[in-house]
Structures
1.
Amino acid sequence: MRAALVLAGGRSTRFGDRDKAVADLDGTPMIRRVVDRLAPVVDEVVINCRDDQVDAIDDAFSDAPFDPEFAIDRDPDEGPMAGIARGLEAVSAAYAVVVACDMPFVDPRVVQYLFERAEGADAAIPRPDEWFQTTQAVYRTEAMAPACRRALDRGDDRIVAPLADLDEVVVDADEIEAVGSLETFENVNTPEEFETAKARIQAE
Ligand SMILES: Nc1nc2c(ncn2[C@@H]2O[C@H](COP(=O)(O)OP(=O)(O)OP(=O)(O)O)[C@@H](O)[C@H]2O)c(=O)[nH]1
Ligand SMILES: [Mg+2]
């Protein structure tokens, strides 16, 4: 069993006064596009967000063939890694791909490959350049959730903090490009980046 955990509990401060998760990307709310791209390679979808976001996000799935499950932050604004912990605690599958809601070009072929690479390990984490792509990575649910909790308990909310407790596989750019596109990691933070993404989708 495989799950997708989509992270949406941020405040979109660089985006402006709207929640980027549900911003209209050429007719489709961004989070819906992300989930639609992941759906073919997973059995379960969990969305992590704040309580005040649920109605708008649920609306984005009103005509979807399934109902996503919500894992609502108990305390908001504790950072993305706290959101991963909360979300993974709601996941039933043994492995979950964690994807930020602002990655509209997430490539299902890459995600499928990450699931394969994670088998037998605690995680498969892409590192296409000097940075770990922790918000587009596959984790073993029962390893990552407690690793996040331990890091939070010791006051370390850095998104890479749980990795210290994991036996992870690191996936480089060549491996990603062999199965899909590095565009999978593009993320939308500003209105300008959103317009660029929209133009690219219109040209698809
Ligand atoms: N649960 C939870 N998720 C978060 C939090 N902060 C960010 N995220 C999520 O983590 C992912 C990456 O974060 P950013 O790209 O910085 O998004 P953001 O925090 O909404 O945007 P900025 O305010 O512009 O930084 C996004 O999917 C966010 O929804 C948080 O405090 N709690
Ligand atoms: Mg981002």
2.
Amino acid sequence: MAKVYYGDDADLQYLQGKTVAVVGYGSQGHAQAQNLRDSGVRVVIGLRRGRSWEQAKRDGFGVYTVDEAVKQADVVQLLMPDEVQARVYRDQVASYLKPGSALMFSHGFNIHFGQINPPEDVDVILIAPKGPGHLVRRVYEEGFGVPALIAVQQNATGKAKELGLAYAKGIGATRAGVIETTFKEETETDLFGEQAVLCGGVSQLVKNGFETLTEAGYQPEIAYFECLHELKLIVDLMYEGGLAGMRHSISDTAEYGDYVSGKRVVGDASRQAMKEVLEEIRNGTFAKRWIEENEEGRGQFDRMAQAEKDHPIERVGEKLRKTMAWLNQDAKEPAKQ
Ligand SMILES: NC(=O)C1=CN([C@@H]2O[C@H](COP(=O)(O)OP(=O)(O)OC[C@H]3O[C@@H](n4cnc5c(N)ncnc54)[C@H](OP(=O)(O)O)[C@@H]3O)[C@@H](O)[C@H]2O)C=CC1
Ligand SMILES: CC[C@](O)(C(C)=O)C(=O)O
Ligand SMILES: [Mg+2]
Ligand SMILES: [Mg+2]
């Protein structure tokens, strides 16, 4: 049974009198920094000059170059994109880490795949929220938290887990539950989840459904609602009550179709592909490819991103979402009562 920590297991005292440098102010960076500050923790932001620098200043933080932020920190949380962390660590973090301080991550990629090798005299801790950064902030403001994982790779001070739990409490995660894991387990499961199910799998399922309907002559707007828009409503039911909760709300006709057709669409071939994807994550093939793609200038990444942006589902979606008053304050046609 997984070990899960809640608020009573964590003590913010372990961060008392300490300075946390959050390096990067994007999706996770802005959320974790603001949550920590609201929890009474002293936070500074490490960045390069640019868009995020200005935003972090507008949000009232002390903003410094990465090396200047690290110099004053007892805890350094690296929240830049995974693919830039190793270079920034080497050039602007490694020489300035204090002995007895903590180096933290929200994803284990660079430690697990050997891209960052911290000195032995620092704690190395993972607090990985299981949700997008903007929700880490929104849910905290609503008085709840996004669940997270905790792992300790190095326990130089003997208090690494206590410090990690204090950090998790500071970002609101102990309100939801913090599960103990390892850098290896977090890295491999997170990469698998986002590639096979949450992002890669779902996007492909949505596009294939949309293309099947539109190629058969159905209106793109109806295909959009059926294959993308309604997905959120169905996933909300799964989130609240599992698969059975979702099936309780849908019609018996939909439930029968679910049982007989789901396995045909996502069947043995898909399960075999999932096993291959997992194996390539575990044996380092995916990580090697992603690191090389960045070293070679991200040409393939950019081409794939552009092709996805140009997909007809995005064009019809953009038009439809402009009419959705609940998404868009400027919608011309507010929802009718
Ligand atoms: N996105 C998410 O919700 C989740 C992310 N994670 C993990 O959290 C970490 C951060 O991910 P995420 O929040 O998506 O990252 P983002 O892509 O949102 O981070 C971008 C931030 O990093 C800054 N940055 C980029 N390059 C540099 C640089 N060379 N020097 C200094 N700052 C730089 C950017 O500044 P600028 O404006 O100047 O470009 C920006 O503030 C990753 O390890 C990721 O795997 C874990 C769970 C969920
Ligand atoms: C699902 C994508 C994710 O793993 C996340 C939000 O948890 C990420 O890397 O962004
Ligand atoms: Mg994730
Ligand atoms: Mg991830």
